[in-house]
Amino acid sequence: MDTRRSAHDMLTVGSIRRPLPATRFLRSVAGYALLTVLALVWLFPLFWVLVTSIKPDPLIPLMPPVWIFTPTLDHYMNLGSAGSFLRYFGNSATVAGAATAIAILVSAPAAYSVVRFGTGGDGLKLAVLGSRMIPPVVIALPMFVIFQGIHLTNSLLGLILLHAAALAPFCTWLMIGFIQGVPREVEESGLVDGCTTLDVLRRITLPLIRPGLATAAVLAMVISWNDLFYALVLTTGDTKTLPVAVSTFVTNYNIKWGELTAASALMLIPPVVLAFLVQKELVRGLTLGGVK
Predict the structure, then answer these.
(1) What would the pLDDT profile of 232-257 be if each residue is shown by its tens digit?
(2) Which of 125, 163, 204, 276 could form a disulfide with 99 if both were Cys (CB 3.0 to 4.6 A apart)?
(3) How many Å apart are CA 117 and CA 205, to the nearest integer?
(4) For the residues 217-239, what does the mean pLDDT come to?
(5) Which of 167, 261, 275, 160 is nearest to 214 (CA)?
(6) CATH 1.10.3720.10 for domain 76-289
(7) What pLDDT, in 10s, does the model give residues 158-192?
(8) Residue pLDDT, tens place only, 201-214
(9) pTM for the complete prediction?
């Protein structure tokens, strides 16, 4: 009887029964195995792109795939010899950077106004959220007509303004949740000390929601960097962005898999580097944004 009671006490804390050590170990192994499989499935397309970008042309279409070969950088060299690839890369960097900066500068005070002063009420919040639900193809023709009327087609400025307008509602909605997590008492203490509302936003609120700003900036930059549809509608020639240039490797007659995968691999560099530089703030922002 005492032995049973002792075993029961070892396996029970309060009213919660803990699993046996062997069971916990098996669950951990199964969990890590599942995560490993999911990670491999997610990473395999990236691995395929990188391998194809250094594979000689005759070996690319072969099935089953050839895994042992002499790597080549010809596909990357062909991108450089085209001359225009670096220009398209610069166009994408300019558009993504400027559009993200404008979107953050607009959305931060907008979100603060909605949270602290109730600007627009619930209707404005629904409008901000609803703007993200509109398919881009619906507004493509009106946007083209408007931008053509103000002579902003085939220009980076027009694409920057369009991306900023599309990203601002997303960033506003994202930062509303972070600003709601800032105690009013902290801001009121700043007002008591003589700060204006703008000073409170700039010196108190924005530093406290820095992870949220980093999250919004990274996501906005990635969305703008990867945009193909708006860039395809508004830009041609020397103003094309990188996604549009990459799409030209798919023709009516063939697909230049080597150059396509090489360009795709290079397109991965800026988002990965940016995410690596702000990874701590990004992780904190994603974590805080998921807790209400």
Answers:
(1) 888 887 888 889 888 888 878 888 88
(2) 163
(3) 14
(4) 88
(5) 275
(6) yes
(7) 899 999 988 998 889 888 888 888 888 887 787 77
(8) 888 888 888 888 88
(9) 0.79
3-state DSSP of the chain: CHHHHHHHHHHEECCEECCCHHHHHHHHHHHHHHHHHHHHHHHHHHHHHHHHHCCCHHHCCCCCCCCCCCCCCHHHHHHHHCCHHHHHHHHHHHHHHHHHHHHHHHHHHHHHHHHHHCCCHHHHHHHHHHHCCCCHHHHHHHHHHHHHHCCCCCCHHHHHHHHHHHHHHHHHHHHHHHHHCCCHHHHHHHHHCCCCHHHHHHHHHHHHCHHHHHHHHHHHHHHHHHCCHHHHHHCCHHHCCHHHHHHCCECCCCECHHHHHHHHHHHCHHHHHHHHHCHHHHHHHHHHHCCC
What does the domain layout of the chain look like in residue ranges?
A: 2-42, 76-289
d(CA 147, CA 157): 10
